[in-house]
Every structure is written in C-alpha cells, then in structure tokens.
C-alpha cells in the first residue's frame, strides 16, 4: 500500500561543490514531490555523528564524517506518494558503480565515499532524520498547485 510520506534528502558537500544542487532539486520537483523544507547548512561533527550513528562501528566512519564536514550541505524534506522508497530509487545504489544510469548517483558519481546525495532508507528513519535536521525550524504545510495534475482524483 502506497502512502503519503516525507523523506529527508541531503545534497552532500561534493554535490554542492560540483554544482548539482539545482539538478537534484529539479529531479524531485519534476517527479511531482512537494518541497516542504530546505536549507544550506554546515553541521557540527556531533550532529553528523548523530545522523550516521548506525554506522559508528564501521571502519569508514571517521572518513565519512570528515567527508560530510568538508563543506556545506543542502538539507531538504520532500513529501508525496511513497516518497521514502521512491527517493531511494531516484538516488540509486549506495555504491555509484552499482547505480543504474538515470539515477542521481548513477549519473553523477563513481565512488561510494563521494556519492553526492543522501536519502532516508525507511519511514521511521525519515522521521528521526527530519527531527534531527529540522526539529527547531519545523516543516512547511501548503497545497501544491500542481497536485491535482500529479495525483488522480
Ligand atoms: P546510503 O547512503 O545509501 O543509505 P549507508 O550504508 O547508509 O548508504 O552509508 C552511508 C554513507 O556512508 C554512504 O552514502 C557513503 O557515503 C558512506 N559509505 C557507505 N559504505 C561505505 C564504504 O564502504 N566506504 C566508504 N564510504 C561508505
Ligand atoms: Mg543510509
């Protein structure tokens, strides 16, 4: 059963530095998703360690945190039908060499440690990530003008 969900999508420092911000936002807009939160941020080490806490025992964890601290990131929440699973599909596989062409990682990346964009992996994870990144500011609520041309009545 497909449901309306929110997912946390984050353009990583390499995506920002390579000028892919507009491109990545455009893909989510054109797919029909609704942008409900957006900011450019330079998160602290602690904040990133919290975001990636499930990976803290991995050997690549220190490099992952260093990578994520190498420049600002773009933090977004996108809302719509099956947004979490569809967002992951739009991102492609974690390792860009295994990502299909047509996906963000499959079109713009080659290595797992420079894979351009993050997306929540489950609805529960998305809720926690949205709280971590936008808990203070909150999420916007509005009706998207195009929604009646994206969703059946
Ligand atoms: P995901 O981003 O596709 O959800 P995760 O397994 O949650 O993948 O890993 C989080 C991030 O950690 C990846 O996007 C990637 O940047 C980095 N990462 C994952 N596995 C490796 C690895 O084997 N070497 C280096 N970095 C990795
Ligand atoms: Mg993950």
UniProtKB/TrEMBL annotation:
<dbReference type="GO" id="GO:0004550">
    <property type="term" value="F:nucleoside diphosphate kinase activity"/>
</dbReference>
<dbReference type="GO" id="GO:0005524">
    <property type="term" value="F:ATP binding"/>
</dbReference>
<dbReference type="GO" id="GO:0006183">
    <property type="term" value="P:GTP biosynthetic process"/>
</dbReference>
<dbReference type="GO" id="GO:0006228">
    <property type="term" value="P:UTP biosynthetic process"/>
</dbReference>
<feature type="binding site">
    <location>
        <position position="115"/>
    </location>
    <ligand>
        <name>ATP</name>
    </ligand>
</feature>
<keyword id="KW-0067">ATP-binding</keyword>
<feature type="active site" description="Pros-phosphohistidine intermediate">
    <location>
        <position position="118"/>
    </location>
</feature>
<feature type="binding site">
    <location>
        <position position="94"/>
    </location>
    <ligand>
        <name>ATP</name>
    </ligand>
</feature>
<feature type="binding site">
    <location>
        <position position="12"/>
    </location>
    <ligand>
        <name>ATP</name>
    </ligand>
</feature>
<dbReference type="InterPro" id="IPR036850">
    <property type="entry name" value="NDK-like_dom_sf"/>
</dbReference>
<feature type="domain" description="Nucleoside diphosphate kinase-like">
    <location>
        <begin position="4"/>
        <end position="141"/>
    </location>
</feature>
<feature type="binding site">
    <location>
        <position position="88"/>
    </location>
    <ligand>
        <name>ATP</name>
    </ligand>
</feature>
<feature type="binding site">
    <location>
        <position position="105"/>
    </location>
    <ligand>
        <name>ATP</name>
    </ligand>
</feature>
<dbReference type="InterPro" id="IPR034907">
    <property type="entry name" value="NDK-like_dom"/>
</dbReference>
<dbReference type="InterPro" id="IPR001564">
    <property type="entry name" value="Nucleoside_diP_kinase"/>
</dbReference>
<keyword id="KW-0418">Kinase</keyword>
<keyword id="KW-0808">Transferase</keyword>
<dbReference type="GO" id="GO:0006241">
    <property type="term" value="P:CTP biosynthetic process"/>
</dbReference>
<keyword id="KW-0547">Nucleotide-binding</keyword>
<dbReference type="InterPro" id="IPR023005">
    <property type="entry name" value="Nucleoside_diP_kinase_AS"/>
</dbReference>
<comment type="similarity">
    <text>Belongs to the NDK family.</text>
</comment>
<feature type="binding site">
    <location>
        <position position="60"/>
    </location>
    <ligand>
        <name>ATP</name>
    </ligand>
</feature>
<protein>
    <recommendedName>
        <fullName>Nucleoside diphosphate kinase</fullName>
        <ecNumber>2.7.4.6</ecNumber>
    </recommendedName>
</protein>
<dbReference type="Pfam" id="PF00334">
    <property type="entry name" value="NDK"/>
</dbReference>
